[in-house]
Amino acid sequence: MKKLINAVEDVVKESLAGFCSAHSDIVRIGEQAPFVQRRHLTLGKVALVSGGGSGHEPLHGGFVGQGMLDAAVPGQVFTSPTPDLILAAAEAADTGGGVLFIVKNYEGDVMNFDMAREMSERSIATVITDDDVAVEKSTFSTGRRGVAGTLIVEKIVGAAAEEGRNLAALKALGDRVNAATRSIGIALTSCTVPAAGKPTFDIAEDEMEIGVGIHGEPGRRRVKLKPAAEIAAEMVNAITTDLGERARGEVILLVNGFGATPLSELYLMYDAVRRPLEAAGCVVARSLVGNFVTSLDMAGCSVTVSVLDEEMKRLWDAPVHTPALRWGI
Amino acid sequence: MKKLINAVEDVVKESLAGFCSAHSDIVRIGEQAPFVQRRHLTLGKVALVSGGGSGHEPLHGGFVGQGMLDAAVPGQVFTSPTPDLILAAAEAADTGGGVLFIVKNYEGDVMNFDMAREMSERSIATVITDDDVAVEKSTFSTGRRGVAGTLIVEKIVGAAAEEGRNLAALKALGDRVNAATRSIGIALTSCTVPAAGKPTFDIAEDEMEIGVGIHGEPGRRRVKLKPAAEIAAEMVNAITTDLGERARGEVILLVNGFGATPLSELYLMYDAVRRPLEAAGCVVARSLVGNFVTSLDMAGCSVTVSVLDEEMKRLWDAPVHTPALRWGI
Asked: How far apart are CA B278 and CA B224, in angstroms?
């Protein structure tokens, strides 16, 4: 295992310390417990709180800041944060407007955020993201997995929260954005969980996994490595087939790296994906390319398409100022 | 070789096409030739033009935009752009104020930018960056190599150019920022050049290269893989020793990934680097962590320290709006 780390058990703590110190103008570590929160909260605004296992950086801590999340709760690598920690983050972030949890659809996350909600006496609602079209059931999930589309939900709902919308309205908006969003991922290599010390799965030098999950869960099938254009066509087809009648008009196109794929390849994939997507009737109105929802050091990428309406587009364009996403401020 | 590409000979062209289409609000491809230029030029402003071999993305194209470069000239992977292409970019970017070339110190780049300057009838000056303290002479360079510190030069000189400073003043500022800046890199794996199809160098599963160049050039020495804290201490020591008396007061600290190292490890390294750097008498006033000056799919990172004065700090903080660096707008 080749990683820039010290002791395996300190990986999350030390990475979090570096993150909070590098971005101390925007975020800070919770006072009593190791979660990420905004340095400056807005009184009465609904607090957006997300979280999940570590290893997907910059998700979620990188999206804490004006226009997105108020707090993010990191578990150990690929391990759900405890209900206690989620509760502490919700208590710290709530300034009177209630709390919206945004939770990727994995059993551990859903259960622990649910327990935190039950333990709290505050007003809390939950949006579950399940944008991954690859499989209907997976290693850690019943129903579809929540993957890179989660950042689109967090950005759009985050902008609406800044406008002062109430908890019920934000919950409805979050569900609507999630329903308009589809993703699929492919892997060229496995990730290596530090505590495991070896790759999560074996894959031959000439193979790739189509439909992989962000923890290295199996996808739809294992195939021989193909040219980017063929991979892109298959990914777009999986998404547009699933969207059906909705696959037209303006969309956000997100090409997301899994951590070990360089930006040059992501831009090449963006080019390869955009062609069949537009041929299928979608108009790419907004684009995002980079490593946003990663799987440690996995090589590969995911494609996310989110069908826009006018309100979603306006909220996507609204100012955002977080460590990992920043525009308009 | 596992890469998301089509034909090897189309890698740079297709990646560039995706980049320009994803960021069409900021950049466009040159009309007659494949370089990156700002969509909107400012009449009479000194034009900043940089470039070099591809494979270091987002450098340099990702730094074209308001507050940084006016044009970037990409060569093939790890191959200098031709004088013709550099000339075309300079002609397109110059709006009457003259042109400042910012060139990393590699023989091919220096020679080709120099030839373009001689071929042109415009006012052109050149800043050469040579921030890498690892070695005094390397595979492709006489004197020190120009690496991640180049982005600090581009950011600070870019902000000064927006203020309307003339060519001579910008050339002097660029030289001053370069002289205040030191970097060193380490690699855990080799990169793989697409046309070569195999790793540039062999490295054992338990080894790392200290002082590596951004094309996989050899560094100072090959050692057994060490904990992050020890690696960080050695990198900081190399930089502060080289800075000597200048290693105190406020600095920019840049922890830069080489392409295949995940953000979580870069933040952990930032934490590990910051401690000995501050113990050595530097105050980290500004921070940047991410993949900015990469080596294709190399795993590893570099550390850059730039000693600030008040003017440099003000210009660093000035608004910037490029695909890869964005704040204040």
From this structure: 26
**Residue A80, pLDDT above cutoff 80:** yes
* A8-179 topology per CATH: Rossmann fold (3.40.50)
Mean pLDDT of B237-264: 97
Contact A327 B326 (CB under 8 A): yes
Q: Is A287 on the interface with B (CB under 8 A)?
A: yes
Which of A2, A287, A327 has the CB atom closest to B299's CB atom?
A2
Q: What is the pLDDT of residue B298?
A: 98
Domain with CATH 3.40.50.10440 in chain B: 8-179
Give the Cα separation of B159 and B170 in Å (integer). 10
- Rounded Cα distance, B186 and B224, in Å: 12
CB pairs < 8 Å spanning A and B:
186
Q: Which residues of B are catalytic?
A: 56, 215
Question: Residue B104: is its pLDDT beyond 80?
Answer: yes
Query: What ipTM does this complex have?
Result: 0.97
B102 - beta bridge partners?
B50, B127
Q: How many CA atoms lie within 13 A of B181 on its CB side?
A: 31
Average pLDDT for residues A225-235, to the nearest whole number?
98
Dihedral over alpha carbons B81, B84, B86, B89 (to 10 degrees): -130
| Ranges in chain B annotated CATH 3.30.1180.20 | 181-309
CATH match of B181-309 with 3.30.70.20: no
Q: What is the pLDDT of residues B145-190, one digit of tens each?
A: 999 999 999 999 999 999 999 999 999 999 999 999 999 999 999 9
Residues of chain A contacting B270 with CB distance shorter than 8 Å = 18-19, 21-22
Percent of chain B with pLDDT over 70: 100
User: Which residues in A lie closer than 8 A to residue B268 (C-beta atoms)?
Assistant: 4-6, 11, 14-15, 18
